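Hi, can you check this record?
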Amino acid sequence: MLKSLRSRLPKEDFVYLGDTARLPYGTKSSQTVNRYALQASSKLVETKIKALVVACNTASSFALEMLAKAYRSIPVYGVVEPGAAAACKIANHTGILILATESTVQGGAYQKSILAKNPRLPIYARACPLWVTLAEQGLDDQSLSFRLVEHYFKGFNGDGPTTVLLGCTHFPILLPFFDRVVDDRFTIVDSAETTADSVANELEMKGLLNVEGGSVSFMATDGIERFCRIGERFLGEDVRNVLKVDL
């Protein structure tokens, strides 16, 4: 998500908080995710941010409305609505396949958002818990990575939905394997890219865009060395000077 936001908003200054002590959120209850999301957001708001982006699909699914009420003085953005809107725009009669974490799928936020826009669209959802681990641990074993990606597409490579919505910001790192698994009739929607576009458009409309800047600072709740290693994989650049914080 941060990579997409920085690409779309190169003059903005970003503060990124990784709640590494308590991840993954994708296997936790809505009550726990709400509590964690509020604590993490409070730490970010303390830094005087002008907007909050909930760059986690599970937290967006459960906690976005709560966070918007808690921080009325700043705009609060999630990833679910932009992803669902983009998928609905390009989906045909075959429907949409949502690939996400277990909690995101069970919470049903994507399903509700899509149905509100087009109640006639067939919707399929599949939890892909091993993809999060795969994305974070690395893709060195090409054969294993391919098999794990292929596994979660089973049953959908025939006459199923042709629009695939990636409902986890970890999943785009697996895109090189998708080309080997799915055929040309599929269109992949990346919720991170659609959210970055939405945030950029909203900030411009509100007159909140920076004319200069481009810095990024990092905070993490545990495992700084691992946070840097994984962050470099997702961002494609060095991650340094990470501040360890308690929530």
The chain has eleven helices and nine strands. The chain has a mean pLDDT of 93. Residues 2-78+194-244 form a domain with the Rossmann fold fold (CATH 3.40.50.1860).
